[in-house]
């Protein structure tokens, strides 16, 4: 009997996501590598590189519980700083958040990055603007319900 060849199944989930062999990938993002190990005390991720990239690129680190963007500020191979890496290298990068083994590293898509930055800006804006006077505890636009209340001081 002839052997059956294993076929990679590709199916489209939506316009933005493609599922290939069970892994979901955002459309337009190029796979750069995979996290092999994470050193939690120094916040460094050891990455097996699958495509070349350089310092200054914006990457998207995505995994089961990980999903964030970061600009690469330094790359090191065997404790020596390098400007760029190529396929097959094992490199260390400083991570701004916790990453886990087998998290995927992608080159960030410009549209996805712009959306992410806009969402971060919205999340960081305060709900109420505080008064400009130093030491003022009231918020502008809402009356302070405790303004005429005396509190005990110890």
3D structure, described in words:
The mean pLDDT is 79. The protein has one helix at 110-124; strands at 10-12, 17-20, 23-26, 30-39, 44-49, 53-54, 58-62, 67-71, 75-77, 80-82, 84-85, 90-94, 104-107. It is built from one helix and 13 strands, in the order βββββββββββββα. It has 154 residues and is mainly beta. It is elongated and about 85 Å long.
Write the layout of secondary structure elements.
Blueprint: E1 10-12, E2 17-20, E3 23-26, E4 30-39, E5 44-49, E6 53-54, E7 58-62, E8 67-71, E9 75-77, E10 80-82, E11 84-85, E12 90-94, E13 104-107, H1 110-124
Antiparallel strand pairs: 1-2, 2-3, 4-5, 4-13, 5-12, 6-11, 7-8, 7-13, 9-10, 9-12
Order of helices and strands: EEEEEEEEEEEEEH
> In which range does the helix fraction lie?
under 10%
What integer value in Å does the Rg equal?
Answer: 23 Å
* Tally of contiguous helical segments: 1
Quote the average pLDDT: 79
Strand content: 35-45%
Number of strands: 13
């Amino acid at each position: 009997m002839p052997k059956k060849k294993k076929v990679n199944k590709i199916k489209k989930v939506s316009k933005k996501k493609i599922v290939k062999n069970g892994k979901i990938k955002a459309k337009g993002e190029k796979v750069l590598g995979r996290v092999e190990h994470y050193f939690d005390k120094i916040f460094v991720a050891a990455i097996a590189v699958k495509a070349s990239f350089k310092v200054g690129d914006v990457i998207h680190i995505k995994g089961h519980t990980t999903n964030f963007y970061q600009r690469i500020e330094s790359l090191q191979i065997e404790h020596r700083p390098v400007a760029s890496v190529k396929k097959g290298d094992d490199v260390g990068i400083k991570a701004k958040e916790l990453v886990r083994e087998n998290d995927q590293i992608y080159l960030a898509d410009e549209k996805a990055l712009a959306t992410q930055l806009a969402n971060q800006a919205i999340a960081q804006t305060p709900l109420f603007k505080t008064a400009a006077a130093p030491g003022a505890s009231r918020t502008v636009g809402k009356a302070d319900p405790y303004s005429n209340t005396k509190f005990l001081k110890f």
